[in-house]
Amino acid sequence: MELPVMPPVSPMLAKSVADIPPGMQYEAKWDGFRAIVFRDGDEVELGSRTGKPLTRYFPEVVEAVRAQLPERCVVDGEIVIAHDGRLHFEELLERIHPAASRVRTLAERTPASLVAFDLLALDGEAVDQRPLTERRDALAAALAGARPPVHLAPATTSLETARTWFSQYEGAGLDGIVAKPLDQPYRPGERTMFKVKHARTADCVVAGYREHKSGPVVGSLLLGLYDADGTLQHVGVCASFPMARRRELVEELAPLRPDDLTGHPWAAWAEEDAQAASRLPGAVSRWTGKKDLSWVPLRPERVIEVAYDHMEGTRFRHTTQFRRWRPDRTPDTCTYEQLDEPVSYDLGELLQ
Hints:
Elements: E1 13-16, E2 25-28, E3 33-40, E4 43-47, H1 59-68, E5 72-80, E6 82-83, E7 86-87, H2 89-93, H3 100-109, E8 113-122, E9 125-126, H4 132-142, E10 150-152, E11 155-156, H5 159-168, E12 176-180, E13 191-197, E14 200-211, E15 218-226, E16 232-239, H6 243-253, H7 272-277, E17 296-308, E18 311-312, E19 315-316, E20 320-325
Parallel strand pairs: 1-13, 8-10, 16-20
Antiparallel strand pairs: 2-11, 2-12, 3-4, 3-5, 5-8, 6-7, 8-9, 12-13, 14-15, 14-17, 15-16, 17-20, 18-19
């Protein structure tokens, strides 16, 4: 592979802001795997945000790149899985699998798509130092004939349209809005764009914690919500505490530590059948492989309020942020019914 921009490339990033800034280009914030796509003839590499290749996990995307992208190019985009009118991030996670046969089966069952939103090189020329407006025009021309599973990300310079997208797109599983300065070159690894994400709060049961990697202090609190059947489902974690607070939490939560797991709602976390039926905190991470995911159980008696952006199925998509303890709430009132339900939006209206 010989391209004017060679892998690995760290993608340009965005910093969080509270409101959508004026005077920029606006796009949806896609909830998928960020990918820098390198094509030199038949040679294709899909580079991840960390620089590690995603190529082997998405053979159908590689095939689509060969069929539809320019012969020699470097494109920034997002790999997503979309069906039934919305994005499905958890199905992307299933692709990170060591067995090639499993990857091929999933590629046929739930094929992924590529949403392209920036251009770094075209033919034999690097264009990454050109203003965004020029890169966007060149990308739109290069993908003028694109068809699914390759898509040009919709973009607008209208602040009013961006605000409408911010409210509409969430119902299709998107993550918010990204705002990009119009005259800016591509700056790998720098947070020079802006992102506005949805923010909500929920009251959750604390039913355990994981220790911090640095030692026997609280790393993250394990959160639960009761489903319609009265089962406490593991929905995510709350982290980002100062180190002093992590030490204090160990002492504060010590009276809730049971002598054994008998009666704990997640007592069966190590059983394979239980993992298949529910999302329990001992499940092996596809990303970390052998990472220690052991946890300290707590009697599910305390409630905290956390901030979250959005749900992926029955779980919080990202790590939640601590807001406050809720001694006025009882654990049985912490159900899925409290969560805001975004208005449904058919992703097919966006990915044409």
